[in-house]
């Protein structure tokens, strides 16, 4: 593919829209994020009962302005990229398209509720906001530690789910439909609510035996919350420990390593570290 | 015992049914697990009100197919093993038998509710699914760390239960039956619900003094959740720490493994490790 | 004080009743614990509505048997000790006396409810059961780690209480008595319920602003639960770390330390460790 | 500024009021804290329904005594400081003023409710009580560890909020206003209540799909509570670890302290540590 044929305005726009290294690219990113946040806040406000009737025209106008901004952004993204199809059928490409469509469809007519639901898809653009974390260096280490402990946490969650299936069935048999445990899935739902210490209280044991089993489940849940914590913490600690010997100075005389940060002389042979 | 007398087809079937090292053995395991999961899902669906009436014949047919598969599996397990009585009276043997019986008993007649309860015992076969964790290497380390901290966690849970007994009685005396604390066991149940931060809300303090005591219990529960977490985490950290230093050197004289990193002589026979 | 004047039967009984080193002392302890547990279970059962009427005579008889056992124990404790007054006015002495009185007072007449409350004091004897932990070695290390982190945890709880006082007042002003926040102490109680992630639901925010503030409180509570956990865990880890170099063997040839537990030869110079 | 012109009584009072090193300064601090606590308790009691009518005169008198004490304190603080404007417009200066005003305004007339709200501002004086922690050495280390892990915790909370926005919208679409999820903000509020394992139960899923999604949210919340805990714990552990290894050797040549345990030469001047 002849890279040199790309016009300079196109490669410049590409830099602004898809990258964030230049000041213009950063400004574009932050501006777009503000519009996304605004569009999300509008969807939220419109969902509050009474609001959409009271401020109909304000919502209508704001809706169209945001849709036009998103449409321009979408077209620009297609124009400046080398292989448009690759962007169009990517996850972000589809989300970007879906976030502009609902308003246009509303002109052609269509059920209000359905359109509202589709418009809520705009929320997925929120993932773009996650890019902010790029500016915060810490998130990488967080993700790394989580990825390392992924296998252990999955085994743990698998054991929790099996425990909930068994105890949920037991509670269904003990309490029965007359006390709110209408089916085994309901019992499992209740068991997850209890084991995770959420405890809505929409369903709760009534019989003494049920309360006793519930007590056992609660104490179990209280005890095993320690497991994921232990996994993640030991992973973080290991990551920190590997981090601690920051100082990579090596004594040029005796090859001793792991000096203190401020060390100027080798603690092993007494010769100067830097000359 | 004369191992050589066992016919080759029997030892081959034994390998497939009881072991999971060969491809055929793995396939048998996974196939069986799918049938178990299916049978559990069916029991769940049937428990939903209305479902068992609506899809009576579908449930009936699926029930019989699964029962026949389980029966064949049960008989095969008895045939291919050397000492059948040992399997029959083992935990899994009894569970396997109980998971086939209910459908047969239904022909002879019998209370629907009782049979349903017995059929729910099929859930215990779910423990076989736990064997999946065999394929995930992490679960061993998890279990080891939990087993090491078992004694400490038991002491902790013992202290929690005693605390709940005392505070539950206090709350019964303070709030009394008119506020939902109908008996001391109910008070203890409430105290466990509160201390573990579950908080159903089916019973809750009404008097100012009761609310004050509840506040103290809640803050205590919030504080001491740190204890099991601390126990498990330090165990995990220690496991991780012990993992790192032992290296894979093997003594060329006595084949002893797991030497310290800096070891130059074998700690078992005293000969040099590297020559 | 002339120690030699004590009759041998008295010192022998003292050993049995107050100590737990001899087999007889252990048997006395365990027997007493069983009676205490039984008396607690009886108090619990009697508190269940309907029970005390149905099994009046059984409760009455059991009550008297336990009271007589406790009375004999109490008198023996006074007789065999050198300075009875010291025992009588100690915490356990008063609890032991209070656990025998209610039944005797019942003969003289007296309000049933009051006597029941006094009898519940017998629960304090449960602390004697805590002595069981003496037989489990782990509890000492647990207590030590907790005692070391006591100061940090108190500072943390102090900050939590101040936060709850402020946020509880804010919620009282925002939501007001019409939404269940009838007074500032009620607001503080609600804030503790929320921050500790218990969440009874007896009181909950109704206004949008109240729900927003509640969200902030909940996320704060979710985040700062990490603090006591972090304190206790680092304390446990430190205790474990100090524990790890269990092996204190020193090589008699090169003075190398920190050998593996099973090491028979020094890993540094290859000479035998024990001769 | 001519420091020498300040009269000695002024500098002495300054020492008592603003500092806490001398016995008089400490006594002043503690006395003031007691009055603040008393004023807070009074505001709380007055908020309880019925109380302010029943004990009108007692509250009225106490109110005036406390107001006069606070007024004297406020004026003293202005007199003894060198640059009064700096104190008056500082955070504490404004809070101190606001804590005296309401009672004076009450004479001029004014809405009772508004004045009560302003008087609640007196609660902000509670921050002065936080100064107590100065006497407890542990709080500094606590704050340091929290400050070090601030960035990581913010990234985590940011991810939690985004997750709640998305899942709250999904629940609004799945359950709808007829099941209590009246708007998207309400859905987000519910999601925060659930993810943080608080679980009031004022809103809870009713449809099977909603309950399934809720189960996923709860298990997620149960799992990711490990993240802040892991962050803070590894920070505490690192703080503890950095504390342990540095020993108390002092270089006899340059008086440098905090050498590594195994150091034989000073890392600062290169001279031998032990001769």
Automatic annotation (TrEMBL), chains A, B, C, D:
It comes from the Bacteria. Keywords: Ion channel, Ion transport, Membrane, Potassium, Potassium channel, Potassium transport, Transmembrane, Transmembrane helix, Transport, Voltage-gated channel. GO terms for biological process: action potential. InterPro entries: Ion_trans_dom (IPR005821), VG_K_chnl (IPR028325), Volt_channel_dom_sf (IPR027359). It holds the Pfam family Ion_trans. Residues 26-241 form the Ion transport domain. One of its GO terms (cellular component) is voltage-gated potassium channel complex. This is Ion transporter.
């Amino acid at each position: 593919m002849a890279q040199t044929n790309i016009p300079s305005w196109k490669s410049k726009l590409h830099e602004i829209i898809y990258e964030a290294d230049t000041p213009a690219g950063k400004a574009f990113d932050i501006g777009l994020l503000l519009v996304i946040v605004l569009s999300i806040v509008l969807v939220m406000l419109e969902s509050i009962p009474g609001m959409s009737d009271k401020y109909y025209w304000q919502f209508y106008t704001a809706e169209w302005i945001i849709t036009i901004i998103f449409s321009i952004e979408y077209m620009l993204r297609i124009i400046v990229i080398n292989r448009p199809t690759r962007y169009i059928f990517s996850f972000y490409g589809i989300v970007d398209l879906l976030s502009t469509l609902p308003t246009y469809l509303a002109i052609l007519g269509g059920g209000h509720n359905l359109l509202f639901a589709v418009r809520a898809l705009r929320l997925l653009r929120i993932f773009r906001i996650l890019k902010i974390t790029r500016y915060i260096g810490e998130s990488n280490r967080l993700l790394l530690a989580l990825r390392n402990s992924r296998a252990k946490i999955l085994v743990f969650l698998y054991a929790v789910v099996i425990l909930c299936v068994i105890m949920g069935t037991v509670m269904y048999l003990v309490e029965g439909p007359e006390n709110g445990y209408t089916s085994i899935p309901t019992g499992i739902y209740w068991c997850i609510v209890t084991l995770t210490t959420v405890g809505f209280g929409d369903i709760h044991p009534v019989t003494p035996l049920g309360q006793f089993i519930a007590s056992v489940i609660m104490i179990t849940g209280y005890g095993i919350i320690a497991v994921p914590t232990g996994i993640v913490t030991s992973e973080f600690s290991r990551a920190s420990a590997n981090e601690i010997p920051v100082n990579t100075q090596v004594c040029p005389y005796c090859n001793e390593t792991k000096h203190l940060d401020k060390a100027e002389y080798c603690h092993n042979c007494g010769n100067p570290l830097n000359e």
